[in-house]
Amino acid sequence: MRRFGAALAAGLALFGPLAVASAAHAAPPTAVLTVEVAPTTAAVGDTVVVTVRGSGVTDLYAYDLVLSADDLLLEPTGDAPTGPEGGYTSAVAAPGEVTISHTRVGTSPGLSSTGQIVLASVPVRVLAAGTARIELSAARLVSTTGEVTTNAAGASISLPLTAVPTPTPTPTATATPAPTVTTSPTPTSTATAAPIPTASASPSPTGSAAARPGGSDLAATGADAAAWLTSGAVGVVLLAAGALLVARRRQGVRE
What region, left, alpha or beta, does residue 56 occupy, with left being phi > 0 and alpha being psi -120 to 50 degrees? Predict the structure, then answer.
C-alpha cells in the first residue's frame, strides 16, 4: 500500500501540472451571434420564426440563448425549437422571453465553423399590431473543456406587426327582376252575322195551283196555263159538235 501510494503521488506530481497547463491553455469558445426573423413582416395571428446564427464559431459544445420580446405582441407557439444536428435542443418559455439550450451528445466534437451556422430556431405567434423588438438578451457558450464565454451585449431585430385587414364586403349582385309584360286582353270579336235577307216569294195569284215538288214557280205556272188551254180546246170542240148536231136535227125536221 505504501508503494502504491508513493506511485500515485509520483504520478500526480508528474502529470498534474500537465493537466493544469492544458486546462489553462484551452481556448474559450467563440462565436459572433446575430438574430434573424422570417418573414420580415407579419399580421396578427401569423407565425414567424426567430433564428439565432453564429459565425466564427470555435469549440462550441453547449450553449444557452435567451430571446426576449414584448409578451403583449409575441408569444412562443410551444413547438419544439430546432438546433444543429448531433445534439439535443430544448426551450423553456417565460413571460416575455424564451431560453433555448443546446448540448452536444457524448463524445461529439464541439461546433466550429468559419462561416455562419444556425444555432437555434424557434417559432413565435403574433398577438397584436405594433413593432416588436426581438433581442438576444443573454448568451452562455461552453467549450468541450468546460470553458465558458458569456455575451452580455446581444443582437436584436425589429419586426413590424400589422392588424388583420378587415375584409371589404363584396356587394351581392341582386338580379334585377325581369319586367312583367302585361298582355292586354285580345278583344274577342263577336261576329254578328248580318241578317240574311229572307226571299219573300211573290204572292201566287189566287186560283193558281200549288208549286209541284221539284219544279219552280214559273214551271208550275206554265203547267197551269197548258191545262187551261187544253180544257178550252176541248170545250170548243164540244161546242162545235153540239152545233153540228143541232144543225142536222133542224135539217131533218125540215125534210
Answer: left
Q: Are 214 and 201 in contact (CB under 8 A)?
A: no
pLDDT in tens, 203-235: 444 444 444 444 444 344 444 545 545 555 556
Angle at 44 between CA 42 and CA 46, to 5 degrees: 55
Say what the pTM is.
0.57
Domain end (from 118, 138, 162): 162
Instruction: Report the DSSP pairing between strands 156-162 and 42-43.
Output: parallel
The total domain count for the chain is 2
Domain boundary (146, 162, 178) is at 162
Q: Which three cell numbers stand for residue 186?
A: 285580345
User: Which range of residues forms the domain containing residue 104?
Assistant: 25-162
For the chain, give percent helix, strand, coil, nearest 5: 25, 35, 40
**H or E segment at 91?**
strand 87-94
Report the 10 Å Cβ neighbour count for 241. 10
* Interacting residues of 172 by C-beta distance below 8 A, sequence separation 6+: none
